[in-house]
What does this fold into?
Amino acid sequence: MINLTVPFVYEAVIIKPRCRKPSLIAIKDKVQVQIKTTTLDKLPIAFKVGDIDLRWDGERLWDYYLESVAKEPKRKVGVDELIKNTQNDGSTYRYSRPGAAAPFKNCWMNLKWSNAPLGVKHNINDCGFDKWISDDDVHDKSEVNYREWVEDNRDVVVALVNKIANGILIIDGTLFSECNEPRYEVCSFGAGHNYSVAMFVTFGYNPNLSSDCYFRADDFYKAQESLLKRDPDKNKIPEPNDGHRIEVFIPEALRCNPKYDHVA
It folds into this structure.
């Protein structure tokens, strides 16, 4: 187990001394989280798709947490890089948003589009989730002078930080992230004319497609049959994108049920 102290920003609504109306301020704080560690030999391969190995811990699937940057090849991330970027408030990470090498950096900014911001609730035209820890107008709570502490959303941000930490696993010193179960997707193209039908391996659901378009990893032949029904003129046996079928090594890891999981 690795302990990390994660810095973050949250919002507070206060009433300042000699004031009547509430004001919104940004507060900086820290919380300690734990990230589990294990070894590769303790997580067997549950699914394989081409060169992707999805490992199983008895409850969840894991794959390498790859740093993905435009115009650069994806790369694996070591635990030392994670610790460094977290301890330094993300200042050693050259990007403004979270990535595999700095999963906590400015993560609170993602809450701006949720129900968490307090500005709308209190009719204040401001948002603290736009702030960086290093901004001059972001303070420790102990530095704030107020007459009344009306409300804050610290618990919401702490819950987000813990959720991020819970989705990370360190295996033999390398970061892995929780991933979804692979499944087959059969869909048509052509704005109603269905001039093309294809099968894909995907790790989630498209809300614009019916649940009938999805098949479990062990239902390849049902997916194939569905494709052929849509396009009986196929002149060869259809295969998923890149020609890689899903190989199932641990049947117990099969949890996907499109009929019930996906509503479209």
Notes: DSSP finds four helices and 13 strands in the chain. The longest helix spans residues 154-166. Helices lie at 79-87, 154-166, 220-230, 258-261. The mean pLDDT is 92.
